Amino acid sequence: MTEIKNVQIELHTPHVLNSMEERDSKNLFDYQYDNIEKKGNYAQKYQSKNRKITSNRPDYQLPDNSIQTSKYTLLNFFPKQLFEQFSKLANVYFVLMGALQMVPEVSISSGIPTIYLPLGFIILVSGAKDFYEDYKRRTSDNEENKQQVTAFDGKDFVKIPSYELRVGHIVKVNQDEIISADMILLRSSEKKGICYVETKSLDGETNLKQKNVHVDLLQTFKSDDCFGQLDKRIILKYQAPTPYLYKFIGETTTSNLQVSSINFNNFLLRGCNLRNVKYVFGLVAYTGHDTKIMMNSYKARTKRSKLEVKMQQFILIIFITQFIMCIIASLVYSITYFNNRQYLNYLYIGENTSEYTIPYNFFVRFGNWMLIFNNFVPISLLVTLEMVKFIQGKIMTLDEKLNQPRVQTSNLNEELGQIEHIFSDKTGTLTCNIMEFKQIIIGNQNYGDILRSSDDYIRDDELLNYPQVSNVDFRDKTLMQAINDKNHIMHDKVEECLKMISICHTVISDQKDGKLIYNATSPDELALLNFARFVGFEFLGTDENNIKRISYQEQIIEYQLLEMFEFTSARKRQSILVQVINTGDIYLFSKGADSVLLDQVRLSKEELNKNEYHQLVQRLQEYGKIGLRTLVLSKRKLSKQEYEEWHKRYQLATQQIENREEKMQVLQDELEKNYEILGATAIEDKLQQDVADTIAAVKAAGIKVWVLTGDKIETAINIGYSCSLLTNNLVQHIVDEKEELLINERLDDILNKIPTLQTTQGQALIISGDALLHALKPDIQKKVAEVCGYCEVVLCCRVSPKQKQDVVSLIRGRNQLCSTLAIGDGANDVNMITAAHVGVGIRGVEGQQAARAADYSVQEFRELRRLLFFHGRECYRRNSVLVCYTFYKNILVVLPQFWYGILSMYSAQSLYDTFIYQLFNILYGALPIMIYGIFDEEYDADQLTDNKLQNYYQQGPQGVLFNIQIVLFWVFCGFWQAAILCFFPTYTISENFVENSGFTHHLWAQGTMIFGLIVVICNLKVLLFSNTYTPALLGSISFSMISYLLSWIILDNIPQAEAYVVFQSLFQTPNFHFGNILVIAAICSIDIALNIKLNRVLQKVNQNTSIKTPFSLNNLSIHQPPKIGGKLNNKAHTGFAFNCLDRDELEDQDKIDLYGIDNQVQSQNG
Amino acid sequence: MSDSKGFLHWLFFKKWHPVPSVGSTIALFSIIGVIFVALGIVITVINNNIQEVTIYKYDQKCSPVEYNKKCSFMYKLDNMKAPIYFYYELENFYQNHRRYVKSKSSTQLSGEEISLSDAEKYCDPIIYNKDLEVWQQDVYVTEQNILIPTERKPDDIASPCGLVAKSFFNDTYTLSLEEKNIVLNQTGISWPNDKGKKYKRAPNSESTQWIDPENEHFIVWMRTAGLPTFRKLWGRIEQDLEEGEYKFEFENNYNPQMFAGAKNIVLSTSGPFGGKNLFLSIAFIVVGVIQLLIALAFLIKKIRAGNSFGQKNE
């Protein structure tokens, strides 16, 4: 890593080709490519060396542009798959058991490795699953690799498949195409060399980013067909591939030896979409897996649910128990045998044979016992669970109340019922990603807040009379009246305000198919402008002479654009200086945050206290509370002199080299003063349906919700309010510092403050991405985690995909037992989705990447509620029971043989027919529990989804249904029931004879009776703990018992079988029937009593932890007075937010990424 | 609902939610408890009406104790009603030992010849004639339990082979009252179907086998018992026995010292459910009482907790 850093420093030094030699060299382009290391793995070979390439001379040694995310090829599938299967401990165990079954001395199945059958089945199934999944990945890879791109082949632009692209190719990208490799921008169809890209798939932000051709290159490539010319060749030196999304360092050398440094602003990333320009040309710099997006993508890990992980632990415990029991049994045998060997002559063990000795006996019996205990570690569990989960997944997809959810990892069904943390993306997940203009305040008049029943409401049919625009939801006729009626009191104010809206912006207009189209980098501006258009003020465009035109009531008003002061997050305002061409008046129009603009109002103190101003502030607070995004509009009239005097100074400032920015800022500030407030606008970042309800319900269920967004703090807070995540009675802690020290102090501060607050008050942490970069460093991490622990709500703003992942990992790392769920819709959420325990993708407008990477995908955020509260909760409950039951069932079938050891000297005599024994887990005890696992329902689905009567969900996160106590309880039940099952039948029939014939029963009759009872008890047990009885459940239970009967009847007629005619004879024995009744009644009654006790204990646990803040969250509605508290950081929230191209932040990117590197190094070391 | 989606929907989604009330649970437990206690009492009464006589260690009753000799002793019996079953009982004999149980060949017993490898596989360690007991090596025991001297090669596969067959119990008994012989019916003492099907005589039985597998004492012996103390039926007395001093005469062939156990004779009459079974009577009463106790516990809780008890999560 240090090496790379050095190189970067080298590149940063001024790039002038000093030596004369180099200057004169005609052979500038005549060099051998040397971009790869000779040895090493992929990363060492291709990603360790800085590169130097010439345009149009592809480096064929560097990898091509193909990507491969699939794990296997046809050739290596088999060995790789085998390796993977046998790296699972369970599989190795079963293979060993199979081997043991083939040792004649030890075998209890006459040397046939019967266990290989189910094992083979398991391996085959999971192998097929892997194959299928990999096949899907392969096809999607192929699709992407075969995408056509337009590349320059030396003479002409030709279409080639994407994978053939090499570093050094010149590529043409057309509008709306996806950029297929990382490239530097050479030329754009736009004159100034600007182009716009949409980076949704990288960082999830939907606003456009501006990229530009480096000035020097703009000079070099002057036409679209100059790329073939020899003198237009350039050399590009740049750094080795790095995963830092916002960083590129390089330099170009043209044929006339002009060296210019290329940075991120001249760099296009793979996966972005080109927007707003017809086409661009680029020089490919990184291909395939070296591209930023690929280096940022993480291989999907195989996820396992908490239940499954715990289950593995319990299996291990059970295995150890088995091991110990087998050792005890074989020790007891070998010692008993040794002590009584002279009385066991009828066994004819020769004194000189090894069988006479303790060690031999011990080991052989140990093998016998291990095989008898074979079912103790339930091989059937894995198969059953897998099958049940698969069908559960299928049923989920068929749920009519969900919109065709997709289940990609049915392994995680029960994890959905244990979620403690939800990490949610904002755009497209909580919001529809649609800005809608809602209300406007002009003067002291509010427009837009209107009831549907009102006369002034614009009905749907009337809406057709207005211009058809998007992003506006404004139904107030009173505003139209004010516009149309020249004598209206508000007329002038309204007109002025709307004119201001329609010119104060950075939107570019465009004609497409005869229609006026706005190209906006900011969705807010688009909404504003469309609103102006809706009410009759249509912005027509800006021409070459910087004249802005608007059309209003069939007249065209022209404004000369004088200056534009851009929006930055520090300034929080955007201003435009214009001169009305007709009148010559000069105005400064500004829009921005109330906190900034209202401070600069040209009013005396008394006036400030006036009603009008207060109304505005109060309105803004109300807007803020319901999450509307507000902008304050203001103007200032300038006299000509004033302007000219200022303009001169401003001109001077722009020509300065030193401190130019600051000086300009000072001058800008000079103008942006003494405002007259025109009004304020409110735009709704439209939430998806029922988001607020869902979040409220999820929070009430005790789940922590974190929102991770690429947006700014203001936007995030706004959304927090609108989806009831934030309320005014939560104390907000905002961490927005950019330096480590400050952040540290801030966190300490917060930690000190928290205990002093009222306990009733909730906390919310709002942290920005920059702060997060530091906060995720190991030493601060702990503090952050601690603060987060206190907070009900955490909002992370301006976070990159990598950071989203880091945040998830932070929580995962802090508390291993805590289950996390990440939900998102864009490609930028993929990392987070793969990092969380459960990833949920939203199949939305932003494409399918997230949905594809996710474990579950839904159409809307609100479906999460049913997914968690009904499906998740029930799957957790059912699967917990299924696992416990399977343990229990196998204990029940194995342990009677252990107990019987007491009566047979622990000589490892099996009680059951081998054949029948093998069928137990396939035929007699498999189906009912599967039906239970799929169809059982404790409560009605809607009642659970509602989760209001009681917090039904809580049992999952608490892990109440599957923990060591519960498993031990089931194991305990297995033990005592097995004892009853062994001894009751034994003494019932072996002590006795059948009436009228005097016959006695033998060992096999006894075994048959025991086994029959096990089958009955196992199946009845399912009936006992089922909540619902379906015909299928009853049918399957009958099926299990009947199939057992049938197989005995078959066996009864085979003379060679040990159990020949046993069944018949048993049925003639009255005591057999008495014994059955006795055993069933004894076990069931005690079992019922114990389970009632257990359920009451569980219920108590549930009640203790039921809903903390019952659904009082409705009090968030606008009309309720704000609650006390929340004074600490938040003076009442006013809802300012504005999404816009932000120059400051673009320039900050470099800094940010240096931190990123540090972070990366540390995380690699750690 | 089932109309539109048909059978499958009915099968999986027609649901019943049976939630038993506390009252019905208590009632159920008490009813079952009462029935069980009653059954237990009935079985105890029946048990008490069954006469069972055990003559412990009958071989010790001869003096001196000698083996492979005839011997007799007197034993006083009460009145007993026919049918009376005559059992021999062995104590501390692990017929359920793993090594013992598996040491036999079902194929051979059903009258077929087996290969040497099969014999080694199934009958180990008793494979050849020479591995058999000395008395078994040069006789043929007929179906009627009569010994006929024959000669077989010691290196032929023993038939029947295996430990179970080798340890065949070969004491024989006669019973008389005042010199009047009492018939011990030794036919029909094995489970029907065993004889002739699972146990079948080989074609040249007399020359190849040391015992006829259709010998019913043999069949009874071959059905390995599940407990280390077991009874096996030896004969049936189909007449009522009067009170009196009975003479038991037996051929003392089987030596219980080799398993440090005892051999007993058991005579038992039968009740409607077969022989005496103390276990069942006790178990029924105990289980019944447990159920009554559970019912009582619920009742107490219900009274204490009032209505809230047993209401499922609501």
TrEMBL record, chain A:
Coarse class of the protein's main subcellular location: membrane
Catalytic activity: ATP + H2O + phospholipidSide 1 = ADP + phosphate + phospholipidSide 2
Keyword entries, A-Z: ATP-binding, Coiled coil, Magnesium, Membrane, Metal-binding, Nucleotide-binding, Translocase, Transmembrane, Transmembrane helix
Residues annotated as binding ATP: 425-427, 525, 567, 591, 629, 709-711, 798, 804, 828-829
Cofactor(s) of this protein: Mg(2+)
Source organism, top-level taxon: Eukaryota
GO molecular function: ATP binding; ATP hydrolysis activity; ATPase-coupled intramembrane lipid transporter activity; magnesium ion binding
Organism encoding this protein: Paramecium primaurelia
Membrane topology classification: Multi-pass membrane protein
Sequence similarity: Belongs to the cation transport ATPase (P-type) (TC 3.A.3) family. Type IV subfamily.
Protein name, as recorded: Phospholipid-transporting ATPase
Residues at the catalytic site: 425
UniProt GO BP: phospholipid translocation
UniProtKB/TrEMBL annotation, chain B:
GO CC, one annotated term: Golgi apparatus
Xref: Pfam families: CDC50
Keyword Membrane part of the UniProt annotation: yes
Segments passing through the bilayer: 21-46, 278-300
Membrane topology category: Multi-pass membrane protein
Chief location: membrane
Keyword Kinase (UniProt): no
Alphabetical keyword list: Membrane, Transmembrane, Transmembrane helix
Location(s), subcellular: Membrane
Family, per entry: Belongs to the CDC50/LEM3 family.
Name of the protein in question: Cell cycle control protein
